[in-house]
Amino acid sequence: MNRITRLTLSALLSSTVLTAAAVATATAATHPETGEELAQDQTFTYRLLDNISSVDPQIVEDADGSDVVRDLFEGLLNQDADGELVPGVATDWDVSDDKMTYTFHLRDNAKWSNGDPVTAGDFVYAWRRAADPATASPYQWFISLMSLENGDEVVAGDMATDQLGVEAIDDHTLEVRLNTPLPYFPQMVVHSTTFPSPQKVIEEFGAEWTKPENIVGNGAYVLTQMNPGESIVREKNDQYWDAENVILEKSVALIINDENVALTRYQAGELDMTDIPAGQFPRLRDEYGEEAHSFPKLCNYYYTFNLSDSGPEAFKDPKVRQALSLAVDRDIIVNNVMAGGQPPAYTFTPEATAGFTPPEVEMASMTQAERDEKARTLLEEAGYGPDNPLSFEMVYNTSEAHEKVAVVLSQMWKQKLGVQAELANMEWKVFLDERGNQNFDMARGAWCGDYNEASTFLDLLQSESGYNDGKYNNPEYDQLLEDALTADDTTPLYTRAEEILTTEKPVIPIYHYAGVYMIDEDLKNFPVNNIQFNWYSKDLYKTAE
Amino acid sequence: MLIYVIRRLLVAIPTIALLVVASFLMMHLAPGGPFTSERPLPPEVLANIEAQYGLDQPLWKQLWDYFYNIVVHFDFGPSFVQKDRTVNDIIAQGFPISLTYGSLAFLAATIIGVVLGIAAAIRHNSWVDYFAVSIGIAAQALPNFIMGPILILTFTLWLGVLPGGGWNGGQWEYLVLPVIALSTSYMGSIARITRSSMLEVMNSNFIRTARAKGLPARAIIWRHAMKPTLLPVISYLGPVFVYVLTGSVFVDLYFSTGGLGQSFVSSALTRDYAVLLGVTILYGTLTVLVNLATDLAYAWFDPKIRY
Amino acid sequence: MFGKSEKAAELAADISDFNAVRGRSLLRDAMGRFLRNKAAMASVVLLSLVVLFVIFGPLFAQYSNEEIDWTRMGDIRGMGAPSLETGHYFGLDELGRDLYARVIQATRTSLLVGLIGAGMALLVGTAWGVIAGFYGGRLDSVMMRVVDILLAIPLTLILILILVVAGRSFVALFVALGAVSWLTMARIVRGQTLTLKTREFIEAARAGGVSESAIIFRHILPNLIGVVIVYASLLVPEMILAESFISFLGLGISEPMTSLGRLIAEGAGTMNYGTLWQLAFPLFFYVTIIITMFFIGDGLRDALDPKDR
Known about the structure:
Largest interface: A-B, 54 and 55 residues
CATH superfamily of the domain at 95-301 in chain B: MetI-like
Mean pLDDT of chain C: 81
Largest sheet of chain B: none
Number of strands of chain B: 0
Order of helices and strands of chain B: HHHHHHHHHHHH
Shape of chain B: globular
Mean pLDDT of chain B: 85
Structural class of chain B: mainly alpha
Radius of gyration of chain C: 22 Å
Shape of chain C: elongated
Helix content of chain B: over 70%
Strand content of chain C: under 5%
Distance between the termini of chain B: 6 Å
CATH class of the domain at 95-301 in chain B: Mainly Alpha
Oligomer: heterotrimer
Number of helices of chain C: 12
Helix content of chain C: over 70%
CATH topology of the domain at 95-301 in chain B: MetI-like fold
């Protein structure tokens, strides 16, 4: 029924388009490279879950907000459809022999949307601004993560911002000094915190500078409408240096809180792209074929044991942890619960991560029956059984999908091992607070990589890490990660670190995320192969139906 | 009368101040703060940000500054979560939207409800009555949030006649579904109240007398029965008006209208203290004013009441 | 929606005419009137059936409310439909759990929420109203000012605040619902107490040296029962509606427990995905409970209202 209505609707639409096209045949454009006929209306409309945190590149902290910021501003480097680095404002860069100094050469035709040239000074201003305590950016720590010279001191407010290791040699040359050789540094300047910002405009309007009527950017689009709770509209920026190759005229984000409603509106033709609710991917793929997409994302999903003093005694025994991990039938979770093409996880770091070779995991090659058998044996050896049942509480934050996974996990443990796992869901802020203070037995965790490198995940379990809520502590593991910072070939180190995790099991990896989306067939070039999901409206275009 | 109004308004000020203090303390009691995030901020960064928003001050100082800025500058502070916006921005943008579709829903519910109720009472025990009663009860018994997905499926996907959400400056196509969704359940209760009130009035002695005198039915209904019938309806309308404005969360969530309802709920969940307090003050003031208006209307309708 | 019943105003008006001290025959009259009210009696029967279903339904359930049917969970749309053969009489929910067992458990929760929420309102509201009305004077004006202030607060806000602060649990839910629903009850009870206080039999008891607490418990409270019961019965559906709204916001009770509001919210999300039974069954029970409670409340009010129609 839906399908039919949609077809008739689109038939109606296309007939009107045809009449319109008949008049305007002369102007019907084609794609310069592929020769495809382009749609008259180059507007991309997609669904956003919620309001974004900011459009200020140095302030923005959420992924959805960064998607918008990447259209409004352009950093030194961009990513292409596969996540490879391509020139942005910088055309190329040199690295010193000690790998501690990077020199970026900026293009001379880059302009702000008010016509001013984009200079190296704009980057220096922006980076100092990000590091400046007065800016109060929640992403201030990113400057420390970048290992900029004096970064930590400036962030702490112990040094003036002009001591930061970034300098404009001339208008088109930017020099960056690091305090440690960071092999993946160029990857980091793709992040929105490092985008330039217009000093003149910020000083003129203060906090008001991000309003659509004031904002000035150097990206391919300008912000024309900001309707919180409803929509965000950005339109093509004619001042952009590569504007002639930008096909998409308009990018519209509609804020739709309920994913099912969003899907309905997609089916009604109001959206070009929307998230597929958990469990609906197989049905939509059957009904809509190519429109339903699933692609790997650089994120993991796991449960962490509380290994600190406040955690249960039982979890101090690696056998118990192994047993619980073994009894999780990941295939059921990825195929029947999420059902969106998520890969089952046997390692903490997603296999898709660049430069990462997962170790041989014994568990991955076993059948589920063998795993269950082994789990029972291990749990028995640890002293838990029918007369001494293991029981604990597992916490997760309120969300339909997390709840489903938690329910299924608890049932697997209950039915296979006789383990009593009590479910406790908490509203997000409470959850973070309790987890951060080790007030839990077992807690849900998930992480999306900040950059495409295994350390973005493995660092989380380092004993000092602020995100190590389970308080896992293994000196060998810490040492491996420290060595990796300066090693030429990091792959074996990461593999070894992951091997330690598989034997010690401080966490139970469940699955790795997949981006599961409905994408209209007319929309081309969406970078489904970019596992960081960094997409740019300027690379998209729509073909005529 | 005037003195009564002034006195009520004066009492409202400490009421709202108390409400602010209570919500403020409750929010600070709740675990987690606006800057509790998945990646815990390094302590020095967190300290920076908290200093920026004045959250490092003692609670009484924060409260004092808050009131001071409101009274002196009419400034409700910045949002901690939507960092590009101040609370003044959020209210200025969201409240007109809530007010527009809320008032329309209120009008629709009242007019349709009263008409249905009166029709049912006049044609007591006829099919009109049964129809009106069934509609009223069904509308009231369905949880109002399921109207969202049902309407969008029907009018947007299947019939394809109305947009499934958005606001677009309040064009009529975008208003229809939110107004229907919001008004239905109140329409049901208003119809039921009007009906039973009218039945009662029609059975009362003074109407019987009027009938006995041979006055035409229409004159009796319009001239004599109307006012007393509407009395209980009016006392119900006050709270309804407040609810269509404050209880409209589900409309904002389903129809992406950009109204204030969603801001309130999400600010409570994200611990966006300033937004939460701002919206609370607004809604509290509104409630006080609407309650006052209801009482005045009541006095006008019922000459027995004097202030 | 929460606690400020449309009925309250009507009721308050009725109360002033309500002659509470006519003795036993009045209650018997009321009972007779209630028994003759067809809609109310039909509702009582229907509601009793729902209650019986909640009590005895589990005997016929073949699965528990949390057990997952692993073999069918992969294809809920194809294999999860209601069927006598599989033993899933109401079908499966999104996770492959037996909806029959879940609906029973949810109905129980919702009934409990209605009863306990209304009960809380009844206890607090009656106590507050009686004390204010009986002792009068400054105490009365302070207590009633508190009620007025609380009535000026949008109750949705309070509900959300309480649940955010206190976390999600049965107790928090009941406290939150109780906290927002006792105000009107307190007002009605106070008004009623004020009129009772001036009656001859109370004066007589006072003159006879009966202690104040004895007067409250022996003479005032028994005469309040009618009004209080009527109002409480009107509160029950409101509590259930309020709980469903909380569930919709994701602040309701925690898995594996569920309530009708939660099941409906889940079912409403998936209604276009070919699993309509997930909405239909909980909605049916929900609507049945609400409508029957409406009629029972109306019937009680009519029965206890001495004005002859």
